[in-house]
């Protein structure tokens, strides 16, 4: 669990730190701690004049699954997809609304990053095994160097979080703590 370096053109991607998801029970880390670390990363990236990408989810892929997604008539609260205020969203931030797990498919995130010459991404958010892992996988497949802030991610299930952090994410890039990543920003 060691991030070795950050490219000069690195962007931060914060996944699904929104009111509806932040209000769900998370494990092993509480959502408020993940949000606090995400906010610290965002402030450090902005201070370094590096892009911050704030991703929210406002839908879901239409395919059938074995797990219920709730009643079709269930409407989430109006502010469900609103980003949490702790992120201190700035006009310079890139915002991406997705309709599926990962931030790349069906969105303009890759174009936004390439226009800015980005070669590496730091990924954080909720849920580790869903939005974070899907975004990290796609970033890796698109040729970006990937780093995941392990204390700025959590899941809805402690075991899937553990498997993602210990087994999957290290195969896609590097992992480290918020403090270590901020230190690499110099």
Automatic annotation (TrEMBL):
It holds the Pfam family Isochorismatase. CDD domains: cysteine_hydrolases. Keywords: Hydrolase. InterPro entries: Isochorismatase-like_dom, Isochorismatase-like_hydrls, Isochorismatase-like_sf. GO terms for molecular function: hydrolase activity. Residues 10-178 form the Isochorismatase-like domain. This is Isochorismatase family protein.
């Amino acid at each position: 669990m060691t991030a070795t370096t950050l490219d000069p053109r690195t962007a931060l991607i914060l996944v699904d730190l929104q009111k509806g998801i932040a209000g769900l029970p998370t494990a092993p880390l509480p959502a408020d701690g993940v949000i606090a670390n995400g906010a610290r990363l965002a402030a450090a990236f902005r201070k370094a004049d590096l892009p911050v990408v704030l991703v929210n989810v406002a839908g879901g892929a239409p395919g059938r699954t074995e797990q219920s997604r709730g009643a079709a008539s269930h409407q989430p609260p109006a502010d469900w997809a609103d980003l949490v205020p702790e992120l201190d969203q700035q006009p310079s931030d890139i915002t991406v609304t997705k309709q599926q797990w990962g931030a790349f498919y069906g969105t303009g995130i890759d174009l936004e990053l390439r226009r800015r010459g980005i070669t590496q991404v730091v990924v954080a958010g909720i849920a580790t095994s869903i939005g974070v892992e899907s975004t990290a996988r796609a970033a890796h497949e698109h040729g970006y160097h990937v780093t995941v802030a392990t204390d700025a991610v959590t899941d809805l299930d402690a075991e899937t979080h553990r498997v993602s952090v210990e087994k999957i994410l290290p195969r896609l890039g590097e992992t480290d703590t918020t403090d270590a990543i901020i230190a690499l920003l110099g």
